[in-house]
Amino acid sequence: MSHVSVTRRYRFCAAHRLHTDHLTAEENWAAFGKCNNPNGHGHNYVVLVTVAGDAGREARQLEELDRVAEDTIVRRFDHHDMNLDPAFADMTTTGENLVKLIWDLLVVRLPAGRLLKVGVIETRDNYFEFAGAGQLIGGSHG
Ligand code: NI
Fold this sequence. Notes:
Blueprint: E1 5-16, H1 25-32, E2 41-52, H2 58-77, E3 80-81, H3 95-107, E4 115-121, E5 127-130
Parallel strand pairs: 1-3
Antiparallel strand pairs: 1-2, 2-4, 4-5
Bound molecules: nickel (II) ion.
């Protein structure tokens, strides 16, 4: 097994509003502050996808990754309101939830064990990272 990993960067612009119907208006404001603004707001999201290297197949592998990422992530979210995405029907569009959703969308489309980590840069100072639920106990998620 190769110990080299490769990270590709993808970008999309999307709108969202941090809000949950499980809280009152005041509680939402307390939890999310200005991100709870009813008009929503947008981010230029950067998604960093890290995969295990596959010696001798790198070019083919990255082509495949680009295609999967475009199909499942960029096309789905770019210039969309994420609050309207079915995956967020009962989940707040936080960076934590987004990075896990992106992991879930990618892991089922890639060969087993290939996906190592997903990172999402939401703002200049906010970065979220997820490496799979089974990572800490030695298993590989998905
Ligand atoms: Ni935001």
